[in-house]
Design a protein that fits this description.
Distance between the termini: 75 Å
Number of helices: 3
Helix content: 40-55%
Strand content: under 5%
Largest sheet: none
Shape: globular
Low-confidence stretches: 4-9
Number of strands: 0
Order of helices and strands: HHH
Length: 86
């Protein structure tokens, strides 16, 4: 019989109720300056998408990362838009 409190005791490492598990992906903090209208569009798009995907919970950071990843996968179209608007 093992005494309680020894190094071999099992510790409950499950997240506390109401706490989210942290992603194992490495995150960085960077500041970006965006046009207010674009930022508002992004916020509205997130709210609409989050509502449409309910009951799946989508964090805003995950939504923004998905938008950026999609954009990076479509660089030729973005280059065309940038070329036309410059």
């Amino acid at each position: 019989m093992e005494p309680t409190g020894t190094a071999n005791s099992q510790i409950d490492t499950s997240p506390m109720p109401g706490k989210r598990e942290r992603s194992q992906r490495k995150r960085v903090h960077r500041s970006l300056y965006l046009e207010q209208d674009l930022y508002d569009r992004l916020g509205t798009a997130y709210k609409v998408t989050s509502h449409e995907l309910y009951p799946v919970e989508v964090r805003k950071s995950a939504f923004v990362e998905a938008c950026i990843a999609y954009a990076l996968d479509h660089l030729p179209e973005i280059k065309t838009v940038l070329h036309e608007n410059v």
